[in-house]
Amino acid sequence: MGLLVLALLTGLAAAVYAAGWVARQGSIASNKVVVANVDIELGSRLNAQMLSVVDWPSGSLPPGTFATVQDLQDRVAKVGLLRGEAVLEGKLAPKGTQGGLSAVITSGKRAMTVRVNDVVGVAGFALPGNYVDVMVNAQQDKEKGEESRQISKTVLERVLVLAVAQEAGRDDTKPKVVSAVTLELSLEDSEKLDLARSVGTLSLVLRNQVDNQTVATAGITKNQLFGTKDIPTPVVMKVAAESKPSIPRARPMAMPAQPSQCVEVVQNANRVLSCF
Questions:
Q1: Domain named SAF: which ranges (predicted)?
Q2: pLDDT tens-place string over residues 16-59
Q3: Percent of the chain beyond pLDDT 90?
Q4: Band of pLDDT at residue 104, cut at 50, 70 and 90
Q5: Are 269 and 263 in contact, with CB atoms under 8 Å apart?
Q6: pTM
Q7: Rounded Cα gap, residues 114 and 163, in angstroms
Q8: Which residue in 192, 164, 194, 191 sits closest to 180, CA to CA?
């Protein structure tokens, strides 16, 4: 009998505790937040089928949330969103932006596409969201009196890959061998890249995503690669002949004419020699 009474009291205490816990949970303040109902790729235009509204605890509410789906109608995602992730203002393109790749280009930047192959495209590992350096191999212009030299030089550093072929998703890590890569560049860098691809062969160099260091190099020539010195072509210079100063020649001294005949004349005890 005593054990039965003890069991009843224990069950009653557990029921009271559970009821109190449920009451406390129900009293936690919450807000309505719009989240992604499916995985959303960057550049996608949002609609009601992609979104849903859930209760979110007010104490952990992130800034920039939306309370209704209507607030997000026709907005464009500039980053990829996972299912269940809150849709924030910072993850959306400005209002009025059309969908597509142009919506994810940073303000002040440009998108430029270059043709690549499995070697130039780093065996397909240059994926959207990665950073690459751009290297060009070309013939250097001739200097006066020198022969043209082949040179490889890094012309652009830390360039963001926006898309490969027609895909801009940044969640895939599998390599993709494609024929074209779209890069995000400043206007000045776009001009450099356009000139570089017209004068030589381009190569993409994959770099660490958190490496922000810029290293300026002078490039390398074939002679430097093999450790031989550049032998400049001998320059033949025409030097005008200088006029030598005239040195006056010494004139031969006139020798006195030798007299042909001499006569000695004695007059008043004086002797006079006359030559003629």
A1: 31-93
A2: 777 776 666 555 677 899 999 999 888 888 999 999 999 888 88
A3: 28
A4: confident
A5: no
A6: 0.61
A7: 11
A8: 164
The Cα-based distances of 240 to 234, 237, 244, 247 in angstroms read 19, 10, 12, 21
Question: Which residue is listed with tokens 């937040």?
Answer: 33
134 contacts 193 by C-beta, under 8 angstroms: yes
Task: For the chain, give the number of residues.
Answer: 276
Q: Tokens in use for 35?
A: 């989240």
**Could you tell me if 138 and 199 are in contact, meaning their C-beta atoms sit under 8 angstroms apart?**
yes
Hey, how many other C-beta atoms are within 10 angstroms of the C-beta on 122?
Answer: 21
The secondary structure of the chain, three-state, reads: CHHHHHHHHHHHHHHHHHHHHHHHHHCCCEEEEEEECCCECCCCECCHHHEEEEEEEHHHCCCCCCCCHHHHCCCEECCCECCCCECCHHHECCCCCCCCHHHHCCCCCEEEEEECCCCCCHHHCCCCCCEEEEEEEEEECCCCCCCCEEEEEEEEEEEEEEEECCECCCCCCCCCCCCEEEEEECHHHHHHHHHHHHHEEEEEEEECCCCCCCCCCCCEEHHHHCCCCCCCCCCCCCCCCCCCCCCCCCCCCCCCCCCCCEEEEEECCEEEEEEC
Tell me which residue has tokens 């969640």.
171
